[in-house]
Amino acid sequence: MANTKLTYITGNIFDAPPNTILIHACNTVGSWGAGIALAFQSKYPHAYNVYKAHCAAHTNDELIGTCLVIRGKPVAEGEKGHDIACLFTSRAYGRRRDGPEDILNATRGAVRDLLRQNGEGKPLHAW
């Protein structure tokens, strides 16, 4: 695994510098319907469509504890070049989400998977 710097910043995650990876926890059912996930869906509709299709193509058990990195559009195309890292930390959302211990275990696995995939050593920004 490459050495990667994780940066914690107070503020708007969408203002992260170009060519960084924005990280957020996701469910495995393909829903970005509330909170920060809804903001990601609004800001990055293409990423949401990729995420939703990925969830539809895999079972909950296949996804839990993994990470889907969705490549952003290049800065030259008027985008900030943000990649989106979806950490699959729960099999459901809202009141049906997994328990805290299961979410923590899935988060560990998903972060390991993200670090493995980040071979370029891009900066990571978590919210």
TrEMBL record:
Gene3D superfamilies: Leucine Aminopeptidase, subunit E, domain 1 (3.40.220.10)
Pfam families per record: Macro
Top-tier EC class: hydrolase
Annotated EC: 3.1.3.84
Catalytic activity: ADP-alpha-D-ribose 1''-phosphate + H2O = ADP-D-ribose + phosphate
Domain of life of the native organism: Eukaryota
Coiled-coil segments: none
GO biological process: peptidyl-glutamate ADP-deribosylation
Boundaries of every Macro domain copy: 23-76
Entry's family note: Belongs to the POA1 family.
Protein name: ADP-ribose 1''-phosphate phosphatase
Organism: Piloderma croceum (strain F 1598)
